[in-house]
Structure formats: C-alpha cells, structure tokens
Amino acid sequence: MAFKKTTWKSILPGCFKAKTPPSETKLPASKQSSFRRVSLSDLSNSSFSVVSDLSSSLVGSNLHVFTLEELKVITHYLSKSNFLGEGGFGPVYKGFIDDKLRPGLEARPVAVKVLDLDGKQGHREWLAEVIFLGQLRHTHLVNLVGYCCEDEHRLLVYEYMERGNLENQLFRRYSATLPWLTRIKIAIGAAKGLDFLHEEEKPVIYRDFKASNILLDSDYNAKLSDFGLATDGPEGDDTHVTTRVMGTEGYAAPEYIMTGHLTTMSDVFSYGVVLLELLTGRRSVDKSRPSREQNLVEWARPLLKDPHKLERIMDPRLEGQYSTEGARKAALLAYQCLSQHPKSRPTMTIVVRTLEPLLDANDIPSGPFVYVVPTEDQKKESGVLRDGHEGENESDIAKYENRDEQKDEDKKKKRCHRQRKGHRYRHGIKTLRYRAVYSDTALYKIHGTSLYCTKPEPLPERA
Ligand SMILES: Nc1ncnc2c1ncn2[C@@H]1O[C@H](COP(=O)(O)OP(=O)(O)O)[C@@H](O)[C@H]1O
Ligand SMILES: [Mg+2]
Fold first, then answer.
1. pLDDT at residue 103 tops 90
2. Do residue 151 and residue 172 come from a single domain?
3. Does some domain include residue 368?
4. Could you tell me if 225 and 273 lie in one domain?
5. Residue from 112, 240, 175 nearest 389 by CA
6. Is 209 strand, coil or helix?
C-alpha cells in the first residue's frame, strides 16, 4: 500500500509562521483505511520543525486550524463566565463558532482548552491530543474540531459536551443523583470508547481514565476526552511499553506504578475504579473519610464479591433504587477489572458485553417519586435546575460551593466557640437542602425522553 507523503508543515500548518489562508488549512478528508495512522512514536518530542518527510498523515481528520485571536473572540476573550473546567493542561472555556467563521464549519458551541504556560504540561500533551483525537473518530470519543498553535500558545477546540464531566455529575453536592440505568449507560459508553482504542490495529493506551476525563452530552452519552497522556500500545512481540509513570492517584494500576510497564490492562484497572465510583458514589481517593476508607479500591474491593456486603457499599443516594442482579454483576466485573494481576482482568470487549444486558433490568424497585422542590431563592442560589438543567457553569458552581464551604467553615468556628464556652454541640438533622432526588422513571417522565428505556430512541428537543 502506498502511503501519502506528508510533512509536519502540512499536518500542523498553524504552527509555522507561513500564513496559510483559512480555506487551505483544512486537512484532506479521505478514507482512513488507506493510510497508516501517525503515531506519537513517529515524532520527535523536542521540536517538530525538524520532523519532516513523514510517510503518513492525519488523514480524514478534518481538523481546522484557528488563530489565537479567533479563539479569543469566540470565548469572549476567555471570560470567566465561559469557564467550563480545568485540569493539568489549563483552563477550558465555552465558545460559539458562528457560520461566518469558516466556510464548511457549521455554527456550533465548542469547548476551547488553553495551555497554561506556567503549568506542568505542554507541547507533548497538546501534540498527543492532536495526533490521537485528530485521527481516531468514534461515537464515544470526544470530537476534536481543531487546534491553534501560535508561538508558544497551544489550544484545542472540541465539540461542546452539555453535561460536562462525570466527576461533577456523580459527586457534585447540588446535582441530582444519577439514576442506576444512567450510570450503567455511562459505564457502557465509556467502556466502548476504551474498547475502540484497545482494538485498533495499533492499540492505543489511554492512560488517564478517570471520572473527570469522561464527558457527557445532553443525553448522558459518555465520551472520552483529554488524550494528553495517551500513548501507543506495544507492537509486535512486545508485551508492554515502558514509560515514566504518569496518571492520577487512585486510578493508576498497581503494576504500572511499581514497574512503569504499561499495557491496555492498565486502562482496564482504571476502568474498574470508575465502575466502583459509579456503584458506590465515592471518589477513588477521599482524604476526608476515615483512614481505612480513603482509598476506594482498598476499602471496597474485598466487599464486591459478597452480595450481602455489597449492599453496604452501594451509593446511598440511589436510595435502593437499583437492580440487585445488575449491581451484583457490575460489582463482580469491577472486582475482576481491579485484579492485582493484569492477565486476570477482562478485556474491554468483555466488559462491554457484560454490561450491555444490564440495561434490560426489570428488578429496579419503583419506589415513590421524591422530588424536593427548591424555593425560588434556593433555585437562584444553588444553580440547580436552571433552565431545566443541572448548573452548567463550573464557575457558578464553584462559587456556590465556596459559599457553602464558607458557611461550613463559619459553622465549625461557631461550634468551637460553643464548645469552648462549655455548650454541648449537637448535630442538626441534615435536610435535603437544594437536593432533588429522582427515581429512574421520574427522570424519564420529567425529560419526556426514552433515555431510560432499554432500546434508545432519538431524543426530542428539550425546551
Ligand atoms: N468538550 C468539552 N465540553 C464541556 N466541558 C469540557 C470539555 N472539555 C473539557 N471540559 C471541562 O474541562 C475539564 C478539563 O478538561 P480536560 O480535557 O480533562 O483538561 P486537562 O487536560 O487539563 O485535564 C473537564 O473535566 C470538563 O469539566
Ligand atoms: Mg483531564
């Protein structure tokens, strides 16, 4: 098969000083199968101005090259009110591309990730995202629309994901509890994304699988984002790749931490951690808990195989409204994914096959629908249910949470004060302030969608 000859200048034209007119900056689209995927190992990390004459290209990627000024304009000059979130790379802002910006680029909301020039990440992570997401397209991977590479500036432009990341949806104090079937739907979507990467002709190891890197669209379809740490898997007879240990505490596989040996099974371990988070509603590491419960895997794994003990660790916010049989199967699967021995873990294909039937559960108790209606003031304050959504704006949420933390702090001070004065302090009964509790069917009714049916149908537009 003849490969198309490409140079870095044609792959990443925006990074070079030559001013390319916008219409020429779109990469050629054609069938991926006739080209070899460019891998990170094909490239020199130090400088791609010396990397040229590559015998492959980012074919079919359809990536757009934006100028820094364009991205500033569409995000209102990276305004705080457009802030969506932040990880190690830098802040992410919501932007809106109108149909006049580029011929062939439809009007759409996007998310723009901006490299923090004082941060710990940089060109290598940016390049990994362009290389992997530019070439790999799948329903369960976030769509990379384009990038910007001007002088030292590095930005990435993705499709906008309405419900943000799974971490916020699962753990944020003011969001409605994710119902059981939604959790399973998310677990399946994320598993399909990983399975796709692992089953590529040249497997890709994602390496940073965690709740904050799983994004959700309006219908809770999960997509993997943040390919900054992704890397090519072992080739030929190699059983693993050896790398510097990078990833996130609480999610990284034990053998990878110990030896630096990375395989697709390291991702499977991290997947098991996220599955456990979905079951228990607990974070992989939570320093605010008693010491033996701080590491979720250490605490929960021994309890996963025993159905009686399992009940004790299921997320109390589910209020018992889950399929017992489904929970057992998912728990057993999590147990296998979290095996100390990589070879004992299931492949992601098996994970998908095991989870899919769980959507057909018919043993979910249909408990009473409890919906705590917030007052107008509470609605304003919490940001919950704004426009019928959970609060979308991370900066608002952070603001409210900070405010609440401040209140907690004030309470603590008062408590200390009372204790010092010899008063006996008693905890008040926690009320369901701002919290809406839904059952699966209730959410289905509210949204008027088929989200919670086993056979998905297209969603009607929400008002
Ligand atoms: N496409 C997107 N749509 C909506 N929110 C996003 C999008 N991409 C990122 N975010 C938000 O920004 C956060 C950080 O993004 P991520 O790509 O994980 O950055 P980092 O590489 O710094 O970890 C995410 O957890 C999410 O809350
Ligand atoms: Mg991230």
1. no
2. no
3. no
4. yes
5. 175
6. coil
Q: What's the whole-number mean pLDDT along residues 243-249?
A: 87
pLDDT tens by residue, 379-406: 444 433 233 333 333 444 344 344 444 4
Pocket test for ligand 1, best of 74, 75, 84 (most atoms within 8 A of CB): 84
Distance 213 CA to ligand 2 centre (A): 5
By alpha-carbon position, which residue is closest to atom 27 of ligand 1?
85
- How much is the average pLDDT of 358-373? 74
Q: Are residues 349 and 425 in the same domain?
A: no
Q: How far is the CA of 176 from the centre of ligand 1 (A)?
A: 21
**Number of domains the chain is built from:** 3
Residue 101 domain flag = yes
Would you place residue 359 in the very low, low, confident or very high pLDDT band (cuts 50, 70, 90)? very high
Tell me the mean pLDDT in the region 266-282: 98
Residues 45, 140 within the same domain: yes
Ligand 2 centroid to Cα of residue 15, in Å, is 24
Q: What is the DSSP string of 387-434?
A: GGSS---HHHHHHHHHHHHHHHHHHHHHHHHHHHTTPPP-PPPPP-TT
Do 427 and 348 sit in the same domain of this protein?
no
Show the domain range for 413: 394-452
Last residue of a domain, one of 159, 187, 217: 159
Same domain, 153 and 192: no
* pLDDT in the model for residue 367: 66
DSSP 325-391: HHHHHHHHHHHHHT-SSGGGSPPHHHHHHHHGGGGG------------PPPHHHHHHH-TTGGGSS-
pLDDT at 444 over 50: no
Residues 63 and 181 in one domain: no
CATH number of the domain enclosing 319:
1.10.510.10
Instruction: Tell whether 186 and 316 lie within a shared domain.
Output: yes
Question: Does the reported pTM lie above 0.70?
Answer: yes
Q: Is 208 a catalytic residue?
A: yes
Distance of alpha carbon 51 from the chain centroid: 32
Last residue of a domain, one of 360, 386, 421: 360
**Atom number, ligand 1, closest to the C-alpha of residue 160:** 3
Pick the catalytic residue from 208, 226, 267, 315: 208
Q: Whose CA is nearest to atom 19 of ligand 1?
A: 87
Q: Is 46 within the bounds of a domain?
A: yes
Is the model's pLDDT at 235 over the cut of 80?
yes
Beta strand spans in 178-302 (E): 204-205, 214-216, 222-224, 231-232, 241-242, 261-262
